[in-house]
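Review session, final week

We close the course with one last complete record, chosen because it touches almost every idea we covered. It is J domain-containing protein, a protein from Hydrogenophaga defluvii with 341 residues. Go through it on your own first, then we will talk.
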Amino acid sequence: MPTARTQDRPSFFRSAPADEAPVPWSGRVSVYDLGRPGGLLIAALLQCAEERGLSLSDLATHMGVSYWSLSQLRIGFRPIETLDEDLAQACADYLDLPRLTVDMLAGLLDPAQALAEEDLSGEDILHARQLLARTPDALLLLPAANRMRPLQGLAVDELAALHRAHGSNPAVVAVLRAELNHRPMSKTELLRAALGPVAAADPAPSAQAAPPPSGILRCGCCQKRLRVPHLAEPGEIRCPGCQTEYAVHWQDSVCLVERIAAPEADDAPEEQATDADDTSPWVVLGLAEGSPWEAVERARRSLLQQYHPDRLGHVSPLVRQLAEAAFKRVGEAYDTLKAQQ
């Protein structure tokens, strides 16, 4: 039996919140308060209060709870496991977040467990994905731009990945189905639906096998054009000009290529010097040296989302290994620039 996340009894210190329109906030959390017992929840409340120019006492008044409740939660005399229903709902109203998201911020509900079992809304799904894929300083706890369609900003590939990872939860499937019902069919889907019965009735096209796909790759060292053959299993190819080796993995008609070995030093000294420059943290993040720190933060968040192993879905161990290595390089480059700053 799962334990209750909040106490059902009402709070004796509950009062009406201040009748004022909330000022929008950035959705970030206070990195200086992450170590407090309240965790992400108290860090989000304090950051929101700071941006709105409120003290802890003013924050309690605006939320409609007692100063004692927030103070005990902030300094740790009140364990987070005893978060009562009134205070949890007040946090949800003040931050303009769904109720289950507050439980996840408070650490009372694991995001992975929530995506697998809980009756989540679309906004809960968005915040749970963030909590799993992002570091606390990269969170953006803002309501969806379109609250009627929270998943409107996700691409079809992201929706497909969400279904592959959490399709066993009926709530996730219902949210995905509701979003897809609002999206028009593509031209390819319309044509396939129109030609489906005709194509099934005519056995001639199935008798002739389609040729396997192939790709064209330009070598990163010598710029020679290489033809990438279709491989049933992950394999390797080598450039005949500079002997650079590439790992090749085909997923249906999509080809993933990653350089795994550079040419020898005596054969291509210029290319080796180029590879040495790849170790620069600016090159790893894809930025010009001396770029502003905001650009560094944006590049780091974008690359960490691109190479995060949880976003790959069902891929071969080789592709997962390459993504994990790239994920680690991005983190090390960011740490290096942060230390220099």
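Two points worth writing down before the exam:
The chain has 15 helices and five strands.
The radius of gyration is 26 Å.
Good luck, everyone.
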